[in-house]
Amino acid sequence: MKKVLIIEDDPEIVNLLSIHLKDLEFEVFSSHNGAEGFDMARSSPFDLIVLDLMLPGKKGLEVCQDLRRANVNTPIMMLTAQSENIDKILGLEIGADDYLTKPFNVREFIARVKAIMRRVSFQASEIEEQVRPKAIDYRGLEIDPDLRKVSFEGTRIELTPKEFDLLYLLASNPGKSYSRQRLLRLVWGYEYDGYEHTVNSHINRLRTKIEPDLHRPSYILTTWGVGYRFCDE
pTM for the full model? Predict the structure, then answer.
């Protein structure tokens, strides 16, 4: 059974989400405090974290950022009563995988959860009539799309779901340059230009994890004036 951690200080929302997540056969855990939720997320593996932005003890953005810094790569869906674009941009930049603004439709929430789980599982039954994704092995960097596993010279590299999606897209099309706007559409599903810095942040984190020399990247290259590409030489 998959496990989900809800970090939310509104008991009514926790109860509502718990009911529907249990219907999806999740085992549900919850915390109303950001600091406590952070400790729970670090000490026990979860398949999904639902994280409110405004929390006592430790704010949601800080929880998300610190979890990513601690290499906790569990998918994170952020919730907030604030609709300002800056909050959404910040959440995505620091490693959140999706974002919903309160009040939200429960059906939309469930659809988003299912989409995240599909991306993580990457099961063949959920990619009907599509070509089976191929594994990639390039200069010691190995990418297995079935297991969603990345290794460098045999050592596993832990990536968040979005980091993996971004890397696999680029590596599957070596030499092809992608603009930040196109990467936003393909990986995040967003059209708004204000999120372009989200791509830069994820590229920087990816390079930190996979590049032997950050000053001279050998895998993810910058195409000046355009965006990014994967090395094809």
Answer: 0.66
